[in-house]
Amino acid sequence: MSVSIIMPMFNSGQYIKEAVQSIISQSYLDWELFVVDDCSEDDSANVVKEIVSYEPRIKLITLSSNSGAAVARNVGIRASTGRYVAFLDSDDRWDKDKLEKQIKFMEERKLAFSHTGFRRVDSQTGITLSEYLPPEKLTYKDMLYANQVGCLAAMFDTEFTGRIEMPNIRKRQDYAMWLKILREVGSVSGLQEILASYRVRNDSISSNKISLLKYNYSVFRDCEGFNVPRSFYYLLANTYARIKRGRS
Q1: How many CB atoms sit inside 10 A of residue 240's CB?
Q2: pTM exceeds 0.90 for this model
Q3: Which pLDDT tens digit goes with each residue over 70-81?
Q4: Which helix (H) or strand (E) holds 216?
Q5: Nearby residues of 3 by Cβ (< 8 Å), 6 or more positions away
Q6: Which domains does the chain have, with CATH numbers?
Q7: Predicted confidence band at 208 (pLDDT cuts at 50, 70, 90)?
Q8: What is the three-class DSSP state of 35?
Q9: Angle at which helices 173-185 and 69-79 pack, to 10 degrees?
Q10: Average pLDDT of 114-137?
Q11: pLDDT of residue 145
């Protein structure tokens, strides 16, 4: 059961080697990785090219213009051939048995969509800031109130979902995609293990919390097609959930 891994990349020279190495080190071997370079201006592409020279399971795709993570991920999805699709950003990493455990979890339960736990680590020190264990099951309604699926932890089975793509919005495209999948398959199941590391960076696109409000609103208004009052209702619910969790 092959897995296609999609990795958008932009100016990730400091972290990309570690991210890719965490895939090469996986105990599960039947995978392909598409690194989609969104016109990086640093040495990111050269780092990946060097790895590609000795690892044929990795493909580097270079976009002609800077287009954002949604476009980059969708280019990778279109190029993919694996039954399962998973995502890892170019500054995050997986534990070595992440794929093996998650695929076994999905196969045994015949799941269309799953996610795992992950830890949040400081980008400078590597110290673990917090850990997240997912609920055993989340429905579409649950996810409207808060995005509880980390992109680095998610995996879906294309035999159930098709080769679905992310809506083309600049941020929160992963959240919109999970809702899109859940409308079709009903629920996402959580593997109760910490199997990935999310790097917390002050300069990351997700660090601007004010701007995220309009993108969360866009998920409900533009992607889900809700009317204005309903969109604001779920925006407020999401904001409250973030404050309650105390994390970005």
Answers
A1: 12
A2: yes
A3: 999 999 999 999
A4: helix 209-218
A5: 28, 30, 31, 32, 82, 83, 84, 85, 86, 99, 103, 155
A6: 3-245 (3.90.550.10)
A7: low
A8: strand
A9: 50
A10: 93
A11: 95
